[in-house]
Design brief:
Largest sheet: 2 strands, antiparallel
Oligomer: single chain
Order of helices and strands: EEHHHHHEEHHHHHHHHHHH
Structural class: mainly alpha
Strand order of the largest sheet: 1-2
Mean pLDDT: 89
Number of strands: 4
Helix content: 55-70%
Strand content: under 5%
Low-confidence stretches: none
């Protein structure tokens, strides 16, 4: 039994283990090649997050999904590079919007340089992803365009907030389906599609990708509050400080809790959390609050839905690995 991929995923089949290790190494080479420029400064900025590491969650799903067809088909690794480049590009933009200082344990591009450099670098990375995508055919371009529209729509919906009368938690889950689920769905779809798997398998792995993507983001919500920063690679409580209402906060505000401590915590969250003392108090109270456990259970529920979506697939090492990935995702949340 060996360990590869994100979260220490156990791959118990030697052939699959080798395929995934080789595939991820080729993806890494592809990421570095795609982010090279004739201008050294651009190369440095574009490779900033590539070299910072990351779990390579999306490429892993591409490679595992490809096991249901021909995993060595020529489009598989380029498709994995495309989804990871797209993800990296959004991180450059997200860090500007969130005014984040740390990403993957290193200074963000906007902190190291400035907002303009970070935004333009994200655009450059998007352009390089599009260049690779063009070689994968018009259907792949259409799929990526639709997913990117969903991703941006999710970001806009998050910024705009729920409409009057809309349940805030339902709205938030819709946001996550767009912001995170859409690109994870493409990861499953591209892997199966590029390997030549049949349409039913492609649909199954697309659904799996979206569901595990939502679970992954919900776990990140928990980690933003519960972790010490090593797991997430970000400063704990970043979302709180920026006033971003993630699922634990939404559960708190749902009306299910109404003790004096609850009201104190709500008041803190609605106030200025750029103050270090108020931020520390809010973080400590939320870490001990049942709302955090409710969010953790929601993450587990989506991981279970992802696992259930795999039921039509034949039993094989790749299916076992995708099921294990569901466990690995929620294990991060404790």
């Amino acid at each position: 039994m060996t360990v590869v991929g994100p979260f220490g995923l156990n791959v118990r089949d030697q052939v699959l283990d080798t395929d995934i290790r080789v595939g991820l190494a080729e993806v890494e080479e592809g990421l570095l090649e795609a982010t090279k420029s004739d201008v050294p400064f651009i190369t440095n900025a574009a490779q900033h997050l590539v070299r910072a590491g990351g779990k390579r969650f999306r490429p892993l799903v591409v490679l595992l999904a490809a096991q249901f067809g021909d995993p060595y088909a020529p489009g598989v690794v380029p498709a994995a590079v495309v989804v990871e480049l797209t993800h990296l590009a959004t991180l450059y933009h997200d860090d500007v919007m969130d005014e984040a200082d740390v990403r993957r344990g290193v200074p963000t591009a906007n902190a190291r340089w400035d907002n303009s450099v970070a935004v333009l670098t994200g655009d450059f990375v998007f352009a390089r992803a599009s260049h690779i995508l063009a070689d994968l055919g018009p259907e792949a371009v259409r799929i990526q365009a639709e997913a990117f529209e969903r991703l941006v729509t999710g970001q806009i919906l998050e910024t705009a907030g729920p409409q009057d009368g809309r349940d805030a938690i339902d709205h938030y889950l819709e946001v996550l389906a767009g912001k995170t689920g859409s690109l994870m769905a493409v990861s499953g779809r591209f892997g199966a599609m590029m390997s030549g798997a049949d349409d039913a398998v492609v649909d199954t792995l697309t659904q799996y990708g979206e569901r595990i993507g939502i679970a992954f983001q919900l776990v990140d919500d928990v980690l933003d509050i519960a972790s010490d920063g090593h797991e997430s690679g970000k400063t704990p409580g970043t979302d709180l400080r920026e006033g971003i209402a993630t699922l634990p906060v939404l559960h708190l505000r749902s009306g299910a809790f109404d003790s004096p401590d609850d009201r104190r915590l709500v008041a803190l969250l609605e106030g200025d959390l750029t103050d270090d003392a108020r931020h520390a108090e809010a973080l400590a109270l939320l870490r001990a609050h049942p709302a955090l456990e409710m969010a953790r259970r929601d993450a587990i529920r989506y991981a279970d839905l992802a696992r259930a979506s795999l039921s039509p697939l034949p039993d094989c090492p790749a299916k076992n690995a995708l099921e294990a990935l569901c466990d690995a995702v929620v294990h991060r949340a404790g």
